[in-house]
Amino acid sequence: MKHVEEWPYPDSETAARKLIELASSIEPVQDGRIHIEKINAPFLYTLKGSGAEFGAGIEYAVEKGWLELHESGTYVRISRARSPS
Fold first, then answer.
1. What CATH number has the domain bearing residue 24?
2. Does residue 30 have a pLDDT over 60?
3. Could you tell me if residue 5 is inside a domain?
4. Are 50 and 44 in contact (CB under 8 A)?
5. For residue 29, what are the β-bridge partners?
């Protein structure tokens, strides 16, 4: 018998919504910036998401306009006008 673990975030949208939830709980610094490690660490270590799920979630949230990712990749901003409901 194989031991198969279910993925906590089976699709990009689920991961993106969890990332928005995490980002919303963090006090932003200058200009609404949220350092990426503030959402990365809880997602990977507390919520047991994978790196692939994190990347897919960030990508999905950016595509939908929920998050703005700085070109350096060091921080994000929540787009209040388009955050998921």
1. 1.10.10
2. yes
3. no
4. yes
5. 33
Q: Tell me, what's the pLDDT at 82?
A: 61
Taking only the tens place, the pLDDT of each residue in 57-66 is 999 999 999 9
Structure tokens at 66: 């929920």
Cα distance between residue 25 and residue 23, in whole Å = 5
C-alpha distances (whole Å) from 44 to each of 2, 7, 13, 38, 81 are 24, 12, 16, 11, 27
Indicate whether 3 belongs to any domain.
no
What burial class does residue 74 get, using C-beta atoms within 10 Å of its C-beta: 0-12 exposed, 13-18 middle, 19+ buried? exposed
Q: What domain count does the chain have? A: 1
What residue ranges in the chain does DSSP mark as E strands? 34-35, 67-69, 75-78
User: Which of residues 5 and 71 earns the better pLDDT score?
Assistant: 71
* Mean pLDDT computed over 57-79: 95
Residue with tokens 């959402």: 39
